[in-house]
Amino acid sequence: MLRLGGKELFSRFLIGTARYPSPETMRQAIEASGSEVVTVSLRRYGSGKWDSNAFLNLLKEMQLNILPNTAGCYSVKDALTVSRMAREVFNTDWIKLEVIGDDYNLQPDPFGTVEAAKILIKEGFEVFPYMTDDLVFAERLLDAGCKVLMPWAAPIGSGRGPANPHSLRTFRARFKDVPCIIDAGLGKPSHAAAVMEMGFDGVLLNTAVSLARDPVEMARAFAMAIDAGRKAYQAGMMPEREFATPSTPVVGTPFWHQEKK
Amino acid sequence: MTKGNTCGIAGAGIIGRLTGYLLAKKGWRVTLFDDGDLAATGTTSYAAAGMIAPYCELEYAEPVVARLGNPSLAMWQQLLPQIGGDVYCQAAGSLVISHPQDRNELMRLVRKMDEHTGNLVMRRVEGAELRELEPDIDDAFMDGLYLPLEGQIDSRRLLVVLGEWLQKYATLNLGVHVRSADDGRIDTAISAFDFDMVLDTRGLKGKTQLPGLRGVRGELVWVHAPEVRLNRPVRMMHPRYPIYVVPRPGGQFILGATAIDDEDLSPISVRGTLELLSAAYAMHSGFSEGRVIETMTQCRPAFPNNLPRIRHGGRLIRVNGLYRHGYLFSPKIAELVISLIEGGKPDAAFAELYEAHP
For residue B199, how many other CB atoms are within 10 A of its CB? Predict the structure, then answer.
Protein backbone atom coordinates (compact mmCIF):
# COMPACT_ATOMS: atom_id res chain seq x y z
CA MET A 1 0.00 0.00 0.00
CA LEU A 2 1.30 3.43 -0.96
CA ARG A 3 0.19 6.44 1.07
CA LEU A 4 0.19 9.58 -1.04
CA GLY A 5 -1.37 12.93 -0.24
CA GLY A 6 -3.69 11.44 2.35
CA LYS A 7 -4.86 8.58 0.13
CA GLU A 8 -4.02 4.87 0.17
CA LEU A 9 -3.17 3.43 -3.23
CA PHE A 10 -2.74 -0.12 -4.43
CA SER A 11 -0.94 0.83 -7.60
CA ARG A 12 2.51 2.40 -7.63
CA PHE A 13 2.07 3.53 -11.22
CA LEU A 14 1.03 7.15 -11.81
CA ILE A 15 0.24 7.90 -15.44
CA GLY A 16 0.02 10.96 -17.71
CA THR A 17 -2.71 11.86 -20.18
CA ALA A 18 -0.86 13.61 -23.02
CA ARG A 19 -0.13 12.58 -26.59
CA TYR A 20 -2.19 9.43 -27.00
CA PRO A 21 -3.50 8.68 -30.51
CA SER A 22 -7.06 9.25 -29.23
CA PRO A 23 -8.96 9.74 -25.98
CA GLU A 24 -10.30 6.21 -26.32
CA THR A 25 -6.78 4.72 -26.55
CA MET A 26 -5.83 6.80 -23.54
CA ARG A 27 -8.74 5.44 -21.55
CA GLN A 28 -7.82 1.87 -22.41
CA ALA A 29 -4.14 2.44 -21.60
CA ILE A 30 -4.96 3.96 -18.22
CA GLU A 31 -7.21 1.02 -17.47
CA ALA A 32 -4.51 -1.44 -18.49
CA SER A 33 -1.97 0.37 -16.31
CA GLY A 34 -4.05 -0.21 -13.20
CA SER A 35 -3.15 3.33 -12.16
CA GLU A 36 -5.23 5.09 -9.58
CA VAL A 37 -3.64 8.48 -10.20
CA VAL A 38 -3.68 10.34 -13.52
CA THR A 39 -1.92 13.62 -14.09
CA VAL A 40 -3.36 16.20 -16.44
CA SER A 41 -2.26 19.59 -17.69
CA LEU A 42 -4.86 22.32 -17.62
CA ARG A 43 -2.86 24.58 -19.89
CA ARG A 44 -3.61 22.44 -22.87
CA TYR A 45 -7.34 22.89 -22.59
CA GLY A 46 -7.20 26.60 -22.33
CA SER A 47 -10.54 28.22 -23.09
CA GLY A 48 -11.95 28.15 -19.59
CA LYS A 49 -15.09 26.16 -20.45
CA TRP A 50 -14.00 23.33 -18.20
CA ASP A 51 -17.38 21.82 -17.48
CA SER A 52 -18.20 21.10 -21.10
CA ASN A 53 -14.75 19.85 -22.09
CA ALA A 54 -15.33 16.30 -23.35
CA PHE A 55 -11.74 15.24 -22.72
CA LEU A 56 -11.66 16.38 -19.11
CA ASN A 57 -15.09 14.88 -18.52
CA LEU A 58 -13.85 11.54 -19.82
CA LEU A 59 -11.08 11.67 -17.20
CA LYS A 60 -13.51 12.60 -14.45
CA GLU A 61 -15.77 9.71 -15.41
CA MET A 62 -12.93 7.24 -14.86
CA GLN A 63 -13.21 7.87 -11.11
CA LEU A 64 -9.49 8.06 -10.52
CA ASN A 65 -7.50 10.47 -8.42
CA ILE A 66 -6.68 13.41 -10.64
CA LEU A 67 -3.31 15.03 -10.08
CA PRO A 68 -3.41 18.30 -12.01
CA ASN A 69 -0.01 19.60 -13.08
CA THR A 70 1.47 22.96 -13.90
CA ALA A 71 3.37 21.77 -16.98
CA GLY A 72 4.57 24.62 -19.15
CA CYS A 73 4.86 27.14 -16.29
CA TYR A 74 8.11 29.08 -16.24
CA SER A 75 7.43 31.37 -13.30
CA VAL A 76 6.15 31.11 -9.75
CA LYS A 77 3.26 33.37 -10.64
CA ASP A 78 2.15 31.15 -13.54
CA ALA A 79 2.43 28.02 -11.43
CA LEU A 80 0.31 29.56 -8.67
CA THR A 81 -2.36 30.69 -11.10
CA VAL A 82 -2.61 27.27 -12.75
CA SER A 83 -2.63 25.50 -9.35
CA ARG A 84 -5.50 27.61 -8.05
CA MET A 85 -7.43 27.14 -11.27
CA ALA A 86 -6.87 23.37 -11.14
CA ARG A 87 -8.19 23.24 -7.58
CA GLU A 88 -11.47 24.77 -8.80
CA VAL A 89 -11.76 22.62 -11.92
CA PHE A 90 -10.96 19.25 -10.38
CA ASN A 91 -12.05 19.90 -6.84
CA THR A 92 -8.76 18.61 -5.41
CA ASP A 93 -5.94 19.99 -3.29
CA TRP A 94 -3.39 17.87 -5.10
CA ILE A 95 -1.02 19.64 -7.44
CA LYS A 96 2.00 18.35 -9.34
CA LEU A 97 4.14 21.45 -9.22
CA GLU A 98 6.36 22.06 -12.22
CA VAL A 99 8.26 25.30 -12.48
CA ILE A 100 10.47 24.95 -15.52
CA GLY A 101 13.86 26.64 -15.44
CA ASP A 102 15.39 25.60 -18.71
CA ASP A 103 13.69 25.50 -22.06
CA TYR A 104 16.08 23.01 -23.58
CA ASN A 105 15.89 20.07 -21.20
CA LEU A 106 12.82 21.21 -19.24
CA GLN A 107 14.85 21.12 -16.05
CA PRO A 108 12.99 22.40 -12.98
CA ASP A 109 13.88 25.77 -11.49
CA PRO A 110 14.78 24.80 -7.90
CA PHE A 111 14.41 28.32 -6.50
CA GLY A 112 11.06 28.93 -8.14
CA THR A 113 9.78 25.46 -7.22
CA VAL A 114 10.60 25.92 -3.52
CA GLU A 115 9.09 29.39 -3.47
CA ALA A 116 5.87 28.22 -5.13
CA ALA A 117 5.69 25.13 -2.89
CA LYS A 118 5.84 27.31 0.25
CA ILE A 119 2.94 29.47 -0.91
CA LEU A 120 0.81 26.57 -2.12
CA ILE A 121 1.27 24.56 1.07
CA LYS A 122 0.17 27.59 3.11
CA GLU A 123 -2.95 27.65 0.96
CA GLY A 124 -3.65 24.04 1.85
CA PHE A 125 -2.36 22.26 -1.27
CA GLU A 126 -0.75 18.82 -1.26
CA VAL A 127 2.28 19.61 -3.38
CA PHE A 128 3.89 16.89 -5.52
CA PRO A 129 7.06 18.65 -6.66
CA TYR A 130 8.75 17.78 -9.95
CA MET A 131 12.48 18.06 -9.20
CA THR A 132 15.97 16.86 -9.99
CA ASP A 133 17.83 14.39 -7.79
CA ASP A 134 19.61 17.22 -5.95
CA LEU A 135 19.67 16.55 -2.20
CA VAL A 136 19.66 20.19 -1.11
CA PHE A 137 16.72 20.94 -3.41
CA ALA A 138 14.90 18.04 -1.74
CA GLU A 139 15.71 19.27 1.78
CA ARG A 140 14.34 22.71 0.97
CA LEU A 141 11.12 21.21 -0.37
CA LEU A 142 10.69 19.16 2.78
CA ASP A 143 11.34 22.30 4.85
CA ALA A 144 8.62 24.01 2.83
CA GLY A 145 6.24 21.25 3.91
CA CYS A 146 6.20 18.83 0.95
CA LYS A 147 5.31 15.29 2.01
CA VAL A 148 6.36 13.60 -1.21
CA LEU A 149 9.37 14.05 -3.51
CA MET A 150 9.38 13.45 -7.24
CA PRO A 151 12.91 13.42 -8.67
CA TRP A 152 13.44 12.90 -12.39
CA ALA A 153 15.44 9.96 -13.71
CA ALA A 154 16.42 11.92 -16.85
CA PRO A 155 14.99 14.94 -18.69
CA ILE A 156 11.22 14.87 -19.46
CA GLY A 157 10.32 12.94 -22.56
CA SER A 158 13.91 11.80 -23.18
CA GLY A 159 13.16 8.16 -22.45
CA ARG A 160 16.78 7.62 -21.49
CA GLY A 161 16.20 5.90 -18.17
CA PRO A 162 18.12 6.59 -14.94
CA ALA A 163 20.95 8.89 -16.09
CA ASN A 164 22.71 8.79 -12.74
CA PRO A 165 21.79 5.65 -10.78
CA HIS A 166 24.33 6.46 -8.09
CA SER A 167 22.68 9.76 -7.18
CA LEU A 168 19.22 8.18 -7.25
CA ARG A 169 20.43 5.54 -4.76
CA THR A 170 21.87 8.27 -2.54
CA PHE A 171 18.58 10.15 -2.81
CA ARG A 172 16.58 7.11 -1.79
CA ALA A 173 18.87 6.38 1.14
CA ARG A 174 18.79 9.96 2.38
CA PHE A 175 14.99 10.33 2.32
CA LYS A 176 13.99 6.85 3.36
CA ASP A 177 10.92 7.97 5.29
CA VAL A 178 9.48 10.20 2.56
CA PRO A 179 7.49 8.75 -0.34
CA CYS A 180 9.69 9.22 -3.40
CA ILE A 181 8.22 8.87 -6.89
CA ILE A 182 10.36 8.86 -10.01
CA ASP A 183 8.88 11.44 -12.35
CA ALA A 184 10.07 11.71 -15.94
CA GLY A 185 12.81 10.31 -18.13
CA LEU A 186 11.84 6.64 -18.28
CA GLY A 187 11.59 5.01 -21.69
CA LYS A 188 11.13 1.31 -21.16
CA PRO A 189 9.77 -1.06 -18.55
CA SER A 190 13.27 -2.19 -17.51
CA HIS A 191 14.00 1.42 -16.47
CA ALA A 192 10.94 1.39 -14.25
CA ALA A 193 11.91 -1.96 -12.76
CA ALA A 194 15.43 -0.64 -12.08
CA VAL A 195 14.26 2.39 -10.07
CA MET A 196 11.69 0.30 -8.18
CA GLU A 197 14.46 -2.16 -7.29
CA MET A 198 16.33 0.79 -5.78
CA GLY A 199 13.41 1.21 -3.42
CA PHE A 200 11.52 4.12 -4.95
CA ASP A 201 7.88 4.14 -3.97
CA GLY A 202 6.41 4.62 -7.39
CA VAL A 203 6.82 5.80 -10.94
CA LEU A 204 5.08 8.55 -12.90
CA LEU A 205 5.35 8.47 -16.68
CA ASN A 206 3.53 9.45 -19.82
CA THR A 207 5.17 9.44 -23.24
CA ALA A 208 6.84 6.06 -22.79
CA VAL A 209 3.29 4.71 -22.92
CA SER A 210 1.44 7.20 -25.10
CA LEU A 211 4.02 7.19 -27.90
CA ALA A 212 4.45 3.42 -27.98
CA ARG A 213 3.13 1.66 -31.06
CA ASP A 214 0.55 -0.03 -28.84
CA PRO A 215 0.03 2.20 -25.80
CA VAL A 216 -2.36 -0.24 -24.12
CA GLU A 217 0.07 -3.14 -24.22
CA MET A 218 2.91 -0.86 -23.13
CA ALA A 219 0.89 0.34 -20.13
CA ARG A 220 0.45 -3.29 -19.14
CA ALA A 221 4.19 -3.94 -19.57
CA PHE A 222 5.09 -1.00 -17.33
CA ALA A 223 2.60 -2.09 -14.68
CA MET A 224 4.23 -5.53 -14.58
CA ALA A 225 7.75 -4.06 -14.46
CA ILE A 226 6.84 -1.69 -11.61
CA ASP A 227 5.31 -4.57 -9.73
CA ALA A 228 8.34 -6.79 -10.39
CA GLY A 229 10.75 -4.09 -9.24
CA ARG A 230 8.77 -3.50 -6.07
CA LYS A 231 8.59 -7.21 -5.24
CA ALA A 232 12.33 -7.59 -5.88
CA TYR A 233 13.04 -4.69 -3.55
CA GLN A 234 10.87 -6.20 -0.82
CA ALA A 235 12.29 -9.68 -1.32
CA GLY A 236 15.83 -8.36 -0.93
CA MET A 237 18.23 -8.95 -3.77
CA MET A 238 21.35 -11.01 -3.36
CA PRO A 239 24.52 -8.94 -3.18
CA GLU A 240 26.57 -8.61 -6.34
CA ARG A 241 29.96 -10.32 -6.46
CA GLU A 242 32.97 -9.62 -8.59
CA PHE A 243 33.42 -13.25 -9.67
CA ALA A 244 31.17 -16.12 -10.59
CA THR A 245 30.27 -18.33 -7.63
CA PRO A 246 28.92 -21.78 -8.39
CA SER A 247 25.54 -22.44 -6.93
CA THR A 248 26.13 -26.18 -6.73
CA PRO A 249 28.80 -27.66 -4.42
CA VAL A 250 32.13 -28.31 -6.07
CA VAL A 251 32.91 -31.34 -3.91
CA GLY A 252 33.32 -34.19 -6.32
CA THR A 253 34.70 -32.03 -9.09
CA PRO A 254 38.27 -33.08 -9.95
CA PHE A 255 40.68 -30.52 -8.48
CA TRP A 256 42.27 -29.77 -11.85
CA HIS A 257 38.87 -28.46 -13.00
CA GLN A 258 38.40 -26.26 -9.94
CA GLU A 259 41.49 -24.07 -10.27
CA LYS A 260 42.30 -22.51 -13.61
CA LYS A 261 45.86 -21.35 -13.76
CA MET B 1 -31.81 -2.17 -49.46
CA THR B 2 -33.74 1.02 -50.02
CA LYS B 3 -36.88 1.25 -52.08
CA GLY B 4 -37.49 4.57 -53.77
CA ASN B 5 -35.10 7.24 -54.85
CA THR B 6 -35.39 10.32 -52.70
CA CYS B 7 -32.54 11.15 -50.37
CA GLY B 8 -32.46 13.98 -47.85
CA ILE B 9 -29.09 15.14 -46.55
CA ALA B 10 -28.74 17.17 -43.37
CA GLY B 11 -25.46 19.08 -43.45
CA ALA B 12 -23.67 20.45 -46.51
CA GLY B 13 -20.02 20.15 -45.61
CA ILE B 14 -17.67 18.16 -47.81
CA ILE B 15 -19.12 14.77 -46.96
CA GLY B 16 -22.73 15.92 -47.46
CA ARG B 17 -21.96 17.65 -50.75
CA LEU B 18 -19.81 14.90 -52.19
CA THR B 19 -22.19 12.09 -51.24
CA GLY B 20 -25.08 14.19 -52.57
CA TYR B 21 -23.25 14.71 -55.86
CA LEU B 22 -22.49 11.01 -56.26
CA LEU B 23 -26.03 9.95 -55.38
CA ALA B 24 -27.53 12.48 -57.80
CA LYS B 25 -25.24 11.17 -60.55
CA LYS B 26 -26.69 7.74 -59.86
CA GLY B 27 -30.22 9.00 -60.36
CA TRP B 28 -31.29 9.78 -56.80
CA ARG B 29 -33.39 12.85 -56.15
CA VAL B 30 -31.22 14.59 -53.60
CA THR B 31 -32.23 17.41 -51.23
CA LEU B 32 -29.70 19.03 -48.91
CA PHE B 33 -30.35 21.26 -45.90
CA ASP B 34 -27.78 23.41 -44.15
CA ASP B 35 -27.95 26.64 -42.19
CA GLY B 36 -24.77 27.88 -43.90
CA ASP B 37 -24.05 29.50 -47.26
CA LEU B 38 -22.81 28.36 -50.67
CA ALA B 39 -19.14 28.68 -49.64
CA ALA B 40 -19.89 26.64 -46.50
CA THR B 41 -18.40 29.41 -44.35
CA GLY B 42 -18.37 28.44 -40.73
CA THR B 43 -17.97 24.71 -41.35
CA THR B 44 -14.99 22.51 -40.62
CA SER B 45 -14.80 21.79 -44.35
CA TYR B 46 -14.35 25.50 -45.06
CA ALA B 47 -11.57 25.85 -42.50
CA ALA B 48 -9.61 22.82 -43.72
CA ALA B 49 -6.43 23.11 -45.76
CA GLY B 50 -7.34 20.28 -48.13
CA MET B 51 -4.25 18.19 -47.60
CA ILE B 52 -4.36 14.63 -48.87
CA ALA B 53 -1.70 13.13 -46.63
CA PRO B 54 -2.64 9.60 -45.60
CA TYR B 55 0.89 8.67 -44.51
CA CYS B 56 1.94 11.82 -42.62
CA GLU B 57 -1.31 11.58 -40.72
CA LEU B 58 -0.24 8.24 -39.29
CA GLU B 59 1.79 10.17 -36.76
CA TYR B 60 -1.10 10.50 -34.35
CA ALA B 61 -3.61 8.11 -35.83
CA GLU B 62 -4.67 4.52 -36.13
CA PRO B 63 -3.50 2.48 -39.16
CA VAL B 64 -7.00 2.51 -40.64
CA VAL B 65 -6.29 6.16 -41.51
CA ALA B 66 -3.82 5.02 -44.15
CA ARG B 67 -6.19 2.38 -45.49
CA LEU B 68 -9.05 4.88 -45.79
CA GLY B 69 -6.81 7.59 -47.17
CA ASN B 70 -4.69 5.48 -49.47
CA PRO B 71 -6.99 5.66 -52.52
CA SER B 72 -7.99 9.26 -51.80
CA LEU B 73 -5.70 11.21 -54.10
CA ALA B 74 -6.37 8.91 -57.06
CA MET B 75 -10.11 9.10 -56.39
CA TRP B 76 -10.02 12.90 -56.31
CA GLN B 77 -7.98 12.99 -59.50
CA GLN B 78 -10.70 10.95 -61.15
CA LEU B 79 -13.61 12.84 -59.57
CA LEU B 80 -12.52 16.44 -60.03
CA PRO B 81 -12.61 16.50 -63.86
CA GLN B 82 -16.11 14.98 -63.71
CA ILE B 83 -17.28 17.56 -61.18
CA GLY B 84 -15.79 20.31 -63.35
CA GLY B 85 -15.14 23.87 -62.31
CA ASP B 86 -11.38 23.58 -62.60
CA VAL B 87 -10.59 22.73 -58.97
CA TYR B 88 -6.88 22.99 -58.20
CA CYS B 89 -5.37 19.64 -57.31
CA GLN B 90 -1.70 19.03 -56.72
CA ALA B 91 -0.08 15.61 -56.74
CA ALA B 92 3.57 16.54 -56.23
CA GLY B 93 4.00 14.70 -52.97
CA SER B 94 4.70 16.25 -49.61
CA LEU B 95 7.81 16.87 -47.59
CA VAL B 96 8.35 16.44 -43.86
CA ILE B 97 11.21 18.25 -42.15
CA SER B 98 12.26 18.71 -38.56
CA HIS B 99 14.41 20.98 -36.46
CA PRO B 100 17.45 19.12 -35.14
CA GLN B 101 15.86 19.28 -31.66
CA ASP B 102 12.72 17.50 -32.85
CA ARG B 103 14.55 14.88 -34.85
CA ASN B 104 13.32 12.03 -32.67
CA GLU B 105 9.75 13.02 -33.63
CA LEU B 106 10.73 12.53 -37.26
CA MET B 107 12.24 9.13 -36.46
CA ARG B 108 9.04 8.13 -34.73
CA LEU B 109 7.06 9.00 -37.86
CA VAL B 110 9.47 6.98 -40.00
CA ARG B 111 9.04 4.00 -37.71
CA LYS B 112 5.26 4.28 -37.76
CA MET B 113 5.12 4.50 -41.55
CA ASP B 114 7.47 1.55 -41.83
CA GLU B 115 5.29 -0.60 -39.63
CA HIS B 116 2.01 0.22 -41.30
CA THR B 117 2.75 0.81 -44.95
CA GLY B 118 6.17 -0.58 -45.72
CA ASN B 119 8.85 1.80 -46.89
CA LEU B 120 7.38 2.23 -50.37
CA VAL B 121 5.53 5.42 -49.55
CA MET B 122 8.47 7.45 -48.31
CA ARG B 123 12.03 8.33 -49.12
CA ARG B 124 14.58 9.85 -46.78
CA VAL B 125 16.05 12.92 -48.44
CA GLU B 126 19.21 14.65 -47.32
CA GLY B 127 21.20 17.72 -48.30
CA ALA B 128 21.27 18.09 -52.07
CA GLU B 129 18.25 15.92 -52.67
CA LEU B 130 16.19 17.96 -50.23
CA ARG B 131 17.33 21.21 -51.92
CA GLU B 132 16.39 19.78 -55.28
CA LEU B 133 12.83 19.24 -54.11
CA GLU B 134 12.52 22.53 -52.24
CA PRO B 135 15.42 24.85 -53.14
CA ASP B 136 14.28 27.71 -50.90
CA ILE B 137 13.92 25.95 -47.57
CA ASP B 138 16.25 27.32 -44.89
CA ASP B 139 19.70 25.73 -44.72
CA ALA B 140 19.13 24.70 -41.11
CA PHE B 141 16.99 21.83 -42.36
CA MET B 142 19.35 19.11 -43.47
CA ASP B 143 17.18 16.08 -43.83
CA GLY B 144 13.59 15.10 -44.24
CA LEU B 145 11.11 12.68 -45.67
CA TYR B 146 9.60 12.85 -49.11
CA LEU B 147 6.19 11.25 -49.60
CA PRO B 148 5.61 11.15 -53.36
CA LEU B 149 2.04 9.83 -53.15
CA GLU B 150 0.58 12.72 -51.17
CA GLY B 151 -1.01 15.93 -52.42
CA GLN B 152 -3.60 18.61 -51.83
CA ILE B 153 -6.80 20.03 -53.30
CA ASP B 154 -8.31 23.51 -53.19
CA SER B 155 -10.95 22.67 -50.64
CA ARG B 156 -12.80 26.01 -50.69
CA ARG B 157 -13.13 26.03 -54.46
CA LEU B 158 -14.33 22.43 -54.40
CA LEU B 159 -17.11 23.29 -51.91
CA VAL B 160 -18.39 26.08 -54.16
CA VAL B 161 -18.21 23.98 -57.32
CA LEU B 162 -20.05 21.09 -55.67
CA GLY B 163 -22.60 23.54 -54.24
CA GLU B 164 -23.27 25.06 -57.65
CA TRP B 165 -23.61 21.64 -59.22
CA LEU B 166 -26.10 20.61 -56.54
CA GLN B 167 -28.08 23.82 -57.04
CA LYS B 168 -28.44 22.86 -60.68
CA TYR B 169 -29.02 19.11 -60.53
CA ALA B 170 -30.40 18.61 -57.01
CA THR B 171 -31.99 20.80 -54.34
CA LEU B 172 -29.65 22.69 -52.05
CA ASN B 173 -31.50 24.49 -49.28
CA LEU B 174 -29.08 26.94 -47.70
CA GLY B 175 -29.77 29.07 -44.66
CA VAL B 176 -32.16 26.43 -43.36
CA HIS B 177 -31.59 25.21 -39.84
CA VAL B 178 -31.94 21.46 -39.30
CA ARG B 179 -33.58 20.60 -35.99
CA SER B 180 -33.17 16.85 -36.22
CA ALA B 181 -32.51 14.06 -38.67
CA ASP B 182 -34.37 10.84 -38.04
CA ASP B 183 -35.51 7.68 -39.76
CA GLY B 184 -36.77 8.86 -43.18
CA ARG B 185 -37.37 12.41 -41.95
CA ILE B 186 -35.53 15.70 -41.66
CA ASP B 187 -37.10 18.31 -39.40
CA THR B 188 -36.10 21.85 -40.29
CA ALA B 189 -36.95 25.36 -39.20
CA ILE B 190 -39.31 25.57 -42.21
CA SER B 191 -41.07 22.24 -41.87
CA ALA B 192 -40.43 18.50 -41.75
CA PHE B 193 -39.61 16.56 -44.92
CA ASP B 194 -39.89 12.84 -45.63
CA PHE B 195 -37.41 10.86 -47.72
CA ASP B 196 -36.73 7.27 -48.71
CA MET B 197 -33.30 7.69 -47.17
CA VAL B 198 -31.83 10.29 -44.83
CA LEU B 199 -28.14 11.09 -44.41
CA ASP B 200 -27.03 13.05 -41.38
CA THR B 201 -23.67 14.65 -42.10
CA ARG B 202 -23.91 17.68 -39.86
CA GLY B 203 -20.59 17.34 -38.05
CA LEU B 204 -20.67 19.02 -34.64
CA LYS B 205 -24.11 20.49 -35.38
CA GLY B 206 -25.47 16.94 -35.18
CA LYS B 207 -23.96 16.39 -31.76
CA THR B 208 -27.24 16.24 -29.86
CA GLN B 209 -28.15 13.12 -31.83
CA LEU B 210 -24.69 11.56 -31.54
CA PRO B 211 -23.50 11.29 -27.94
CA GLY B 212 -19.74 11.02 -27.60
CA LEU B 213 -18.98 13.41 -30.44
CA ARG B 214 -16.65 16.20 -29.36
CA GLY B 215 -14.95 19.20 -30.94
CA VAL B 216 -11.18 19.48 -31.28
CA ARG B 217 -10.12 23.05 -31.85
CA GLY B 218 -7.80 23.85 -34.73
CA GLU B 219 -6.26 27.18 -35.69
CA LEU B 220 -4.95 28.27 -39.09
CA VAL B 221 -3.36 31.33 -40.61
CA TRP B 222 -3.53 32.36 -44.28
CA VAL B 223 -0.55 34.31 -45.50
CA HIS B 224 0.14 36.04 -48.79
CA ALA B 225 3.89 35.81 -49.35
CA PRO B 226 4.86 36.23 -53.01
CA GLU B 227 8.57 35.95 -52.16
CA VAL B 228 8.20 32.40 -50.95
CA ARG B 229 8.28 29.51 -53.33
CA LEU B 230 7.35 26.04 -52.19
CA ASN B 231 6.57 23.28 -54.65
CA ARG B 232 4.44 21.17 -52.34
CA PRO B 233 2.99 21.04 -48.81
CA VAL B 234 5.76 20.98 -46.23
CA ARG B 235 5.20 19.68 -42.75
CA MET B 236 7.36 20.47 -39.77
CA MET B 237 7.51 18.14 -36.80
CA HIS B 238 6.36 19.63 -33.53
CA PRO B 239 6.11 17.89 -30.15
CA ARG B 240 2.35 18.34 -29.88
CA TYR B 241 0.91 18.64 -33.36
CA PRO B 242 2.32 18.75 -36.87
CA ILE B 243 2.57 22.19 -38.42
CA TYR B 244 2.17 22.33 -42.18
CA VAL B 245 2.64 25.00 -44.78
CA VAL B 246 0.44 24.45 -47.81
CA PRO B 247 1.24 26.52 -50.92
CA ARG B 248 -1.72 27.67 -52.99
CA PRO B 249 -1.70 29.41 -56.38
CA GLY B 250 -1.18 33.18 -56.30
CA GLY B 251 1.45 33.26 -53.57
CA GLN B 252 -0.95 32.21 -50.84
CA PHE B 253 -0.03 29.83 -48.04
CA ILE B 254 -2.10 28.09 -45.43
CA LEU B 255 -0.32 27.54 -42.12
CA GLY B 256 -1.99 25.00 -39.89
CA ALA B 257 -3.03 23.62 -37.65
CA THR B 258 -3.07 23.39 -33.91
CA ALA B 259 -5.03 20.63 -32.18
CA ILE B 260 -6.48 21.46 -28.80
CA ASP B 261 -8.96 19.14 -27.14
CA ASP B 262 -11.51 21.80 -26.44
CA GLU B 263 -14.76 22.84 -28.10
CA ASP B 264 -13.91 26.48 -28.41
CA LEU B 265 -14.59 28.69 -31.42
CA SER B 266 -13.10 31.90 -30.02
CA PRO B 267 -10.53 33.68 -32.21
CA ILE B 268 -7.01 32.34 -32.69
CA SER B 269 -4.76 32.41 -29.60
CA VAL B 270 -1.52 34.35 -29.36
CA ARG B 271 0.34 31.14 -28.73
CA GLY B 272 -1.19 29.42 -31.76
CA THR B 273 -0.36 32.41 -33.94
CA LEU B 274 3.22 32.51 -32.70
CA GLU B 275 3.78 28.82 -33.20
CA LEU B 276 2.38 28.75 -36.72
CA LEU B 277 4.09 31.93 -37.90
CA SER B 278 7.44 31.13 -36.33
CA ALA B 279 7.41 27.67 -37.89
CA ALA B 280 6.78 29.19 -41.30
CA TYR B 281 9.42 31.87 -40.77
CA ALA B 282 11.97 29.28 -39.69
CA MET B 283 11.22 27.31 -42.83
CA HIS B 284 11.62 30.29 -45.14
CA SER B 285 12.67 33.80 -44.13
CA GLY B 286 10.64 35.19 -47.04
CA PHE B 287 7.56 34.82 -44.83
CA SER B 288 8.74 37.83 -42.81
CA GLU B 289 7.45 40.20 -45.47
CA GLY B 290 4.31 38.18 -46.06
CA ARG B 291 0.91 39.51 -45.11
CA VAL B 292 -1.44 37.73 -42.76
CA ILE B 293 -4.67 37.77 -44.74
CA GLU B 294 -6.86 35.59 -42.59
CA THR B 295 -6.89 33.70 -39.33
CA MET B 296 -9.25 30.85 -38.80
CA THR B 297 -10.51 28.83 -35.86
CA GLN B 298 -12.77 25.84 -36.18
CA CYS B 299 -13.60 22.66 -34.29
CA ARG B 300 -13.24 19.26 -35.88
CA PRO B 301 -15.91 16.68 -35.05
CA ALA B 302 -14.34 13.61 -33.43
CA PHE B 303 -15.43 10.50 -31.61
CA PRO B 304 -13.39 9.22 -28.64
CA ASN B 305 -11.30 6.98 -30.92
CA ASN B 306 -10.77 9.84 -33.42
CA LEU B 307 -12.08 7.62 -36.25
CA PRO B 308 -15.09 8.23 -38.50
CA ARG B 309 -18.29 6.39 -37.77
CA ILE B 310 -21.10 5.27 -40.07
CA ARG B 311 -24.23 4.67 -38.01
CA HIS B 312 -26.92 2.91 -39.96
CA GLY B 313 -30.25 1.11 -39.90
CA GLY B 314 -33.67 1.70 -41.49
CA ARG B 315 -33.88 4.88 -43.53
CA LEU B 316 -31.17 6.79 -41.67
CA ILE B 317 -27.39 6.88 -41.93
CA ARG B 318 -25.31 9.18 -39.79
CA VAL B 319 -21.76 9.84 -40.98
CA ASN B 320 -19.62 11.83 -38.61
CA GLY B 321 -16.31 12.12 -36.76
CA LEU B 322 -14.08 12.70 -39.79
CA TYR B 323 -11.92 14.72 -37.39
CA ARG B 324 -8.93 16.24 -39.21
CA HIS B 325 -9.44 14.09 -42.28
CA GLY B 326 -12.47 15.46 -44.12
CA TYR B 327 -10.90 15.71 -47.57
CA LEU B 328 -8.67 12.73 -47.06
CA PHE B 329 -11.52 10.41 -46.12
CA SER B 330 -14.56 11.74 -47.95
CA PRO B 331 -14.09 9.97 -51.33
CA LYS B 332 -13.80 6.55 -49.67
CA ILE B 333 -16.42 7.26 -46.99
CA ALA B 334 -18.88 8.49 -49.64
CA GLU B 335 -18.26 5.28 -51.57
CA LEU B 336 -18.87 3.17 -48.44
CA VAL B 337 -22.08 5.07 -47.65
CA ILE B 338 -23.45 4.69 -51.18
CA SER B 339 -22.75 0.98 -51.29
CA LEU B 340 -24.42 0.70 -47.88
CA ILE B 341 -27.53 2.47 -49.24
CA GLU B 342 -27.63 0.44 -52.43
CA GLY B 343 -26.33 -2.89 -51.25
CA GLY B 344 -27.47 -2.79 -47.65
CA LYS B 345 -24.27 -4.26 -46.30
CA PRO B 346 -21.24 -2.75 -44.57
CA ASP B 347 -17.88 -3.29 -46.25
CA ALA B 348 -16.11 -5.97 -44.24
CA ALA B 349 -12.71 -4.39 -44.92
CA PHE B 350 -13.75 -1.38 -42.82
CA ALA B 351 -15.95 -3.17 -40.29
CA GLU B 352 -14.64 -1.05 -37.40
CA LEU B 353 -16.26 2.09 -38.83
CA TYR B 354 -19.86 0.82 -38.85
CA GLU B 355 -22.32 0.78 -36.03
CA ALA B 356 -26.05 0.07 -35.86
CA HIS B 357 -28.32 2.77 -34.45
CA PRO B 358 -28.84 2.22 -30.73
Answer: 28
Chain A partners of B215 at a C-beta cutoff of 8 Å?
A: 54
Q: Residue B119 is which amino acid?
A: N
* pLDDT, tens digit (0-9, with 9 covering 90-100), for A3-53: 999 999 999 999 999 989 899 999 999 999 999 999 999 876 656 677 778
Please indicate, yes or no, if residue B64 is contained in any of the structural domains. Answer: no
The answer to whether residues B131 and B252 belong to one domain is yes
Would you put residue B288 in left (φ > 0), alpha (ψ -120 to 50) or beta? alpha
Q: Which domain holds residue B188?
A: 6-48+155-212+304-356
Residue B89 in domain = no
Instruction: Tell me, yes or no, whether B223 and B345 share the same domain.
Output: no
Residues of B in contact with A89 (CB under 8 A): none
Q: Is the ipTM value over 0.95, yes or no?
A: no
Angstrom distance (rounded) from CA B244 to CA B221:
11
Query: What part of B 78-117 touches A (C-beta under 8 Å)?
Result: 101, 108, 111-112, 115
Nearest-neighbour CA in chain A from B347: distance (Å): 23
The type of residue at B86 is D
User: Can A96 be counted among the known catalytic residues?
Assistant: yes
Query: What is the model's pTM?
Result: 0.86
Same domain, B132 and B219: yes
Looking up residue B135, the CATH number of its domain turns out to be 3.30.9.10
